[in-house]
Amino acid sequence: MRIDLHTHSTASDGTDSPAGLVRNAAAAGLDVVALTDHDTVRGHAEAIAALPEGLTLVTGAELSCRIDGVSMHLLAYLFDPDEPELARERELVRDDRVPRARTMVRKLQDLGVPIEWERVARIAGDGSVGRPHIATALVELGVVETVSDAFTPEWLANGGRAYAEKHELDPFDAIRLVKAAGGVTVFAHPAAVKRGEVVPESSIARFAAAGLDGIEVDHMDHDEPIRARLRGLARELGLLTTGSSDYHGSRKPVALGTYTTDPEIYGEITRRATGAFPVPGTGGPRRT
Fold it and tell me: What pLDDT score was predicted for residue 283?
């Protein structure tokens, strides 16, 4: 089995529609794919309707969190999307995205960048506007060569010159809310130092004590020494380890299935979940 547990669609900041994403996942030879758009489940229904036979969808979201002034992301899998307290928190985060993005555009303008809000809004379309959309605008304007180049202290990295904070969940609250909604939690790219400051390993130990299920180890932003260290930490703390592409379509240079999760780990995630269940594909074209 080939299992990719972290992808994004146009419901947040990917470039594939939810339907296009599951079709592309099947074409890439995946058996299981998780749709984990930022702070939203809006793409799930479209993805399920288009799900090709032979591909299983894991519903989820990537929740924006902050601890001690450091931003972090928590992958939440197979939770009940209608659980009211978690739904309310996701809405608060989403509602803060537009004011935050407008603030970053103004900061870029103050830095002399000829960026306009209308360009960013066009790029975001119906998705939840975020830094990748602003980064794409910087690429279009020739300010940086790639989206990744925009995520530096010079521009949009955490604490960067044009960075602006947004409403984010306390990770301990997020773990509690996801568990109450029957879901499973995995700390996304916990050591992605190129994105900015990361939480210390002592905090990961505290998350584990609070009920965190796992950490994402195999990720494009982790080199081999980091992966080895994270695997050791996971063994020490009794955490599951996952791998995934963090696919954003054409917005990032990583393909679906570049990194994958062990089937036994996937099985344990599904065993722990009670809020929702993986969806086997029946609505789309048969895989060949």
Answer: 56
